[in-house]
Design brief:
Blueprint lengths: L1 H57 L2 H23 L6 H30 L5 H29 L6 H27 L5 H27 L16
Length: about 230
């Protein structure tokens, strides 16, 4: 009887390491499964990120549609503004086109592009943010060159400082905000949509001011009907 108990005890002690090893293997397998689930969830969230961003921007769709449509209408009106330059000096027209007319069309085009990009559902926030940041830097450089060009050209000597501010400095500040908005989008900051919406509206308002300023400057000297650049005077 004692011998039987000794044999059973030896078998029990022999099975203890085997059970401990099996339990450790089970814990290890469970831990690997949990790590795999966490990795799968993180990958799923990463691929869902563009959709999440589009849902955030979708609340602004009507706003950006209104702003983009207004910018397109104002670009069309610039063709009417160009007709007011008939009969002016060719050199003055080239300088005015470079420093006044083209910047307005450029700013309105930026408004259209940003408005369209804001409601596009397939753009990832990271890549969109980088694009907006680069656009802001490009706009700042362009605005600086316009400011310097207006100060040097002195096409309207009585208003050179005024023109330099509205056609160069003010857009440059707005483009700085656009660049910061792109950085916010890249970092997925919550204020990104609001910042870019404010910047787009500000750029649109500055463009409206500049277009009206250009019309009121050109209209008094515009030739009347039948007095274009090629018409004969009696």
């Amino acid at each position: 009887m004692r011998a039987a108990f000794e044999v059973a005890g030896r078998d029990h002690h022999r099975q203890m390491p085997e059970r401990s090893g099996g339990l450790a293997l089970a814990h290890s397998t469970l831990a690997s499964w949990q790590a795999r689930d966490v990795l799968a969830q993180s990958i799923s969230l990463h691929w869902q990120e563009p959709r999440i961003w589009s849902l955030v921007m979708r609340g602004w769709s009507d706003y950006f549609f209104m702003v983009g449509s207004s910018a397109l209408a104002l670009i069309g009106l610039m063709f009417v503004v160009v007709t007011l330059t008939a009969g002016r000096d060719r050199h003055e027209l080239e300088a005015g086109k470079k420093l006044y007319t083209t910047p307005i069309v450029w700013h309105l085009g930026v408004v259209v592009v940003l408005s369209a990009g804001a409601v596009a559902p397939i753009l990832a926030s990271n890549w969109t943010g980088i694009g907006v940041l680069l656009l802001g830097l490009l706009g700042m450089t362009y605005a600086f060159s316009i400011t310097v060009g207006i100060r040097r050209a002195q096409l309207a000597s009585n208003f050179s400082g005024y023109d330099a501010f509205w056609y160069g400095v003010a857009p440059g500040v707005i483009y700085a905000v656009i660049g910061l908005s792109g950085l916010a989008m890249f970092r997925q900051a919550t204020f990104g949509p609001s910042a870019i919406a404010a910047a787009v509206m500000a750029l649109l308002l500055v463009s409206i001011h500049n277009e009206w300023d250009l019309v009121t400057y050109l209209a008094p000297d515009a030739p009347g009907p039948g007095k274009g650049a090629g018409s004969e005077t009696e």
